[in-house]
Amino acid sequence: MSLTKKLLEAIFTMWKSLSETLTNMNVISAVSSTLFIIMLGFFLRRKNILTDQVGKTLSKVVLTVALPALAFNSFMQNIDGKTLSQGMNVLIWGILIYILLILASPFLYKKLPKDKEEVLAVLTTFGSTTFFGIPIVGAVWGAKGVMYSSIFNIGYRIFLYSYAYIKLSGLKLEMKNIKQMFLNPVVIATFLGLFLWLAQDLVPHISVLQSSTKQTVDVAFYRIDLTAPWIYKPLTYLANLASPLAWLAIGITLGSIPFKEAASDKLSWYYSFNKVVLVPLLNLALLALLTLTHILPVDNVALATVIVMMATPTATVAAAYAIGFDRDALLTSNASLISTFSAVIAIPIWIVILNLIAQTPIFN
Length: 364
What we know:
Blueprint lengths: L1 H21 L2 H22 L5 H23 L6 H24 L9 H12 L3 H41 L5 H9 L1 H15 L5 E5 L6 E5 L3 H4 L1 H12 L1 H15 L2 H5 L2 H27 L7 H11 L5 H9 L4 H29 L7
Antiparallel strand pairs: 1-2
């Protein structure tokens, strides 16, 4: 009787958590916004109202203006012991997981010819974390999520511009790739924001009246969110463009490629399952283990950030390497399309799952 009672209580708790998640307007709004705007871009492209060139232009605006503003602004917040600890844990995991995926991903494709195995292993390891992941994380988990995702991406960019390039090109790492790694606007904004966030207790402070609380606070002189709102506000407007423009560009991309041909490629579907389901599931299992053992604990926001970033479709840069160096270009194109389609379906499901997990004591 006691066992039955506990089982019923567990079922009731799970049902209650699911009901709260599915009625959470922030979650529903984030998921619906993502889907609706992607569908709008798809519809506008199919009707030839917007062209491929528009999608590429929007992507450039997002990557060179909106995402750097979003990344930089996310660091304009107070530093505390817990947030600092979580940020460092995310940084460490962001390096470890790519080493693990580089070693493990080839085993998923061992039965394939060597060339296909290498290409799909690289594409499985690297997702579109910057363009696809950060806007979704920002829409659901706000500035702290964007900050964690920016920190997580440090390891991603190190391996994307080194290992992925070498593996797919067969060449040694070139200086142009090192420059691309460090002179990328998103990278510059991330490192600048991270440095300012970490150093804010070491620099001169000034007293500022907070308009929201009507209280005076002492902050670092460069905390432009409080000391120079005339600079911070334009950056906020630019940052707010990241999500809608990115989703619109994704929809235009999906509407530009013949889906029927790609959908007939079973290997692309297998790859997409690995990319948007298996890889984030592996992260979830390992982070749960590391948190429970207190080896590398993460909270629910840090966990959600990592899972969404790892559930993103094929990285544009990795796909460009494969196509540019003629490494199964057709397979790469099909895999990119199918994984993008799969991610549009899978990530909203992951968001619901992550909100359910957030209500358990494991990551709190």
